[in-house]
Prior knowledge:
The complex is a heterodimer of chains A (about 1000) and B (about 270). Chain A is about 60% helix and about 5% strand. Chain A has 50 helices and nine strands. In chain A, the strands form three sheets. Chain A has a four-stranded mixed beta sheet with strand order 6-3-9-8, covered by helices on one side. In chain A, strands 5-4-7 form a three-stranded antiparallel beta sheet, with no helix packed on it. The radius of gyration of chain A is 32 Å and the shape is globular. Mean pLDDT of chain A is about 70; it is low at about 190-200, about 230-280, about 360-390, about 820-830, about 855-910 and about 970-1000. Chain B is about 65% helix and about 5% strand. Chain B contains 13 helices and three strands. In chain B, strands 1-3-2 form a three-stranded antiparallel beta sheet. Chain B starts with a helix and ends with a helix. At the A-B interface, helix 1 and helix 2 of A face helix 2 and helix 4 of B. Chain A: Acts as a regulatory subunit of the 26 proteasome which is involved in the ATP-dependent degradation of ubiquitinated proteins. Chain A: Pfam families: HEAT_2 (PF13646), PC_rep (PF01851), RPN2_C (PF18004), RPN2_N (PF21505). Chain A: It comes from Digitaria exilis. Chain A: One of its GO terms (biological process) is proteasome-mediated ubiquitin-dependent protein catabolic process. Chain A: InterPro entries: 26S_Psome_Rpn2 (IPR016642), ARM-like (IPR011989), ARM-type_fold (IPR016024), Proteasome/cyclosome_rpt (IPR002015), PSMD1_RPN2_N (IPR048570), RPN2_C (IPR040623).
Amino acid sequence: MAAVATVSSASGLLAMLQEPAPELKLHALASLNSVVHLFWPEISTSVPTIESLYEDEEFDQRQLAALVVSKVFYYLGELNDSLSYALGAGPLFDVSDDSDYAHALLAKALDEYACIKTRVSKATEEEENIDPRLEAIVERMLEKCILDGKYQQAMGMAVECRRLDKLEEAIVRCDNIQGALSYCINLSHQYVNHREYRFEDDALLAYQIAFDLVENENQAFLLNVRNRLALPAPVPSNPDTGSALQDDQTASTGTGAETAGDVQMRDDTTTPNGNAHTVDPNEVAHADRLTKIKGILSGETSIQLTLQFLYSHNRSDLLILKTIKQAVEMRNSVCHSATICANAIMHAGTTVDTFLRENLVVIHFYLLPLHRIAALAISLSHYGVVLQEWLSRATNWAKFSATAGLGVIHRGHLQQGRALMAPYLPQSGAVGGGSPYSEGGALYALGLIHANHGEGIKQFLRESLRNTSAEVIQHGACLGLGLAALGTADEEIYEDIKNVLYTDSAVAGEAAGIGMGLLMVGTASEKASEMLAYAHDTQHEKIIRGLSLGIALTVYGREEEADTLIEQMTRDQDPILRYGGMYALALAYRGTANNKAIHQLLHFAVSDVSDDVRRTAVMALGFVLYNEPEQTPRIVSLLSESYNPHVRYGAALAVGISCAGTGLSDAISLLEPLTSDVVDFVRQGALIAMAMVMIQTNESFDSRVGAFRRQLEKIILDKHEDTMSKMGAILASGILDAGGRNVTIKLLSRNKHDKLTAVVGLAVFSQFWYWYPLLYFISLAFSPTAFIGLNSDLKVPKFEFLSHAKPSLFEYPKPTTQQTTTSTVKLPTAILSTYAKAKSRAKKDAESKANQEKTTEEASGSTSGKAAKTQEKDADAMQSHIFKDSWTPSTNCISCCSKVDNTAEKKAPEPEPTFQHLTNPARVIPAQEKFIRFIEGSRYVPVKPAPSGFILLRDLQPTEAEDLALTDAPSTVAGTTSNTAAAAGQQGSGSSAMAVDEEPQPPQPFEYTS
Amino acid sequence: MDPKLTEVAQLFARFKAAYARNDLDACVTLLSQLKVQLTKFPSLPPLFQQTPNAVEELKLARDIYEHAVVLSVKLEDQDAFERDFCQLKPYYMDTCGIIPPSPEEYPILGLNLLRLLVQNRIAEFHTELELLPVKALDHPCIKHAVELEQSFMEGAYNRVLSARQAVPHETYVYFMDLLAKTVRDEIAGCSEKGYDSLSISDAKQMLMFSSDQELHQYITEEHPEWEIKNGSVFFQKAKESQPCKEIPSLQLINQTLSYARELERIV
């Protein structure tokens, strides 16, 4: 007989609650408290009774009642109610309890508290209305952590809750103050937006902070910081900044995103750095440093360095362009402009326009009638004339694009930008100086050159806009102004653009809409409703489209705040506005992976009646999910098999956007079938998306890259291929080798901050469906993949570091050989690659054992091998497969079985070295970052151990003369053109004697004569 | 014997004495003292700790609660009845044979069933019934309640009323009286639906009132919406006030159409 009796119901206890005697009520409550985990469904029906006990002033155990109610609510999943009753329970709520209930509620309480604290710190005028009980709980929790010796936990919580007093207490009471401080620094690196804790007053760190700030690309914010710096704020900060706590405070107060209130605090972090030297007698040095930091903050320093890097490391493969050129029918204007665009993208930011100058000319000979060849031969040295021939083929809008392409190539050429474009710019007073198309294009190009750094050019663009009434020029000027004044919310510019909009010209209006959006990016200003109203008024679809994109841009990053506007747009009758609504959703929730937004987008993707809206909805998923690229292929995989080609197209681009630059295997697998879709524009989208995903991935990293390159070539060469997919293929080739292969598409900065310019660039880029010139916006998304070390003079010293990986994994793709370009379409290369893959797979199975043995052998053989092996363990599984694959020369050959490899000297039997010395400045692609190690004992020590980006180096031997690298500024003197490849090969070895500050010469002007 | 247990036993003895001499006020005070005392025994539900005196304590506590239930019937206090019964129930259901079954178990369970019937809580009535073992249904007390419920459901109200004469236990009388009231309410509800109007004499007979006075009083208290004129009771107003619920056809059609549409949309 089972003698163990258990209760089957709480009804008895609940009945006891009704008893008149308070003792009985108390007993019932106490018993209920102990069985609540079993009988909460029963008790939940009696919650009102218990609540009334809690509210009964005379009942002396109100807190117990509150605790019981809180538990019931917890089990019901009503965490908010549960928390409020738990607060009512006061000391009865045991923070050290090890139950799920206590854990969940504590987490909730901390969240709530941190949230309130954040709100309070943002809106300073708001009264501090924190529930003292909540505060008490959090304090009890912190106290307990400190008592238990869990200092790290306590510090983490304190930082999150902005309780600097508690943070201080935790650090002071900690037995290991050193450890605690270092943990604290880690913490602030991780959780607190880009901020360094400073222990020594060192200008280097100030520069580093400035670079980090610049990387986050918030123009309005940077301007603000700079203006504050400009004031001679002579408040001498505590010179003894060694006291770490002081630092903690200055630094920690700045937690949070870019809000107005925050600027002040962030400013605090930089100002003392710059000002620390006011106490020094050396005022000059200080002023100098201040100028430098201003230079950094203005973005000029980094842009200039980037420009130099891209120029010196340019490895673009002109043969690819040549192939394209050869294959493309001249009459086909779509492919023609696509080629120009591909060229622009390939050379984005490199300032190298060799293609235009050299190859195109040569190829042109074949295409031009004989008598013109003669003429050309004479003027060969005058490339301007030749270029004129080439560009003169471009008519109207193609000319606009071609000129704008120059802007992409010279992106970041701030000082010389205007001089470069001068020949094409509208001349005031000069009538008929040039075609309006090239003039408009030139203004657009200026915008691209100065994107997000338009202080110097804004005025000029505004004047150009005012002085013209030609809609094409207005078009270019609006785009240019939008780009140059990105996110500055400048009222005057806004008015200027608005005047253009109100002329109700379709062409100018479209650009005006986008321009207004660019100007107001992320401001969520009420201008949006003004724009929306006009979008309803106008008859022109183009204007509506421009405006709806513009409205979407204004809500960039505003998340819930934008919901009303999104709702308004997505419910509109007009499909174009709904389409804008999709963009608004995408941009408002960019990179948040917000479930609600995803849900909404998926809903529109399958239910809207307009194909445009559905396509955009799917594509928008890419923007929402770019912070979790692994998720996107899974979410859109079903959509990529939709019967509707628009949805498939959207799915392709969504993957392309969110997985851009990752080389993610899943993404490639998803896109592969789409590149041979039956519908031409789906192929186009898939090719572009594939290129975005594979950018900077080479064949030895993923063999499919090689196959893809061959596929592109095949499409371009195929006479019967549709124009749409051909255009896709041309653009894809451009993107794949973008920026001389030294750039990637990155939507998140290194400290996981959204890169506004990049996101906005991609969003506008995706509009190319309607308007090809918008293709150039992709250049905004490019960021250089470089390690650039700087000394305290912001010069690039010679500095070596290690990449603990086989060089072949990350090297530039092999240049295509002449042979491949001259030969006609190769044999079915696709079969070759699959065969190779299948074979390598079979071989891998067979050899896996042998490989492992070999690994151990090699590891014992050499120390470097050992290092590589440990490295390998770190790398993820897929990667280590590749490692093993290429471990033996035989498998290596198979997996990289391309025609290039067969012809090249790749046959060398000796194994590749497992590491590689890189010289500052070096190309470090994102996948390579985890292999970067700094050599101990070298002269320079990085201030921040980051594997890429701008890194300040501390010179350990400051007395010795420094050996500078990267002093060769891009020079576009015609004579050096043939040597570009050689120059690129120099790897910035510092052989050139040019000074750093020297700006590259502008290419010689050419003029349109048509 | 445990002193605490002895103390409670003595207190209970005093309670029984008071109960025997029908001193109900004394009973109530003593009972509440007893209940408070009982909370000090850990062997009782919900803890069921295995103390040496567990069996004694459980038996005593059950006895006390059984008396409490009967007392509440005597006091004609339905809330107290429900409270005490709920507290008594674990002793019947959850003791798993630690203590021998009580002789009072079935009469009290039957009483509870009757109470549910009186309060017209038919769903709970059946829930309780399901919890009983099959052999319990043969017990006259339970059987009585079940039969009453069947007659009640069939509408054989005369059988319900005549059952008052054959109660299996003296405590049942109170509830049987209340049942007559429940039956009357049922009849009133049916008449309202069934007739437009009834003559006063018919209504009097139907609702089992001996005088017009009682009928008038009943109508003003329970059904103020009824109207008495020209020697008849009119139910018209009540009907109007309760408009027949329309089938939400439009909504249903819309819903079905939207389902069809959703189904059609293949991703």
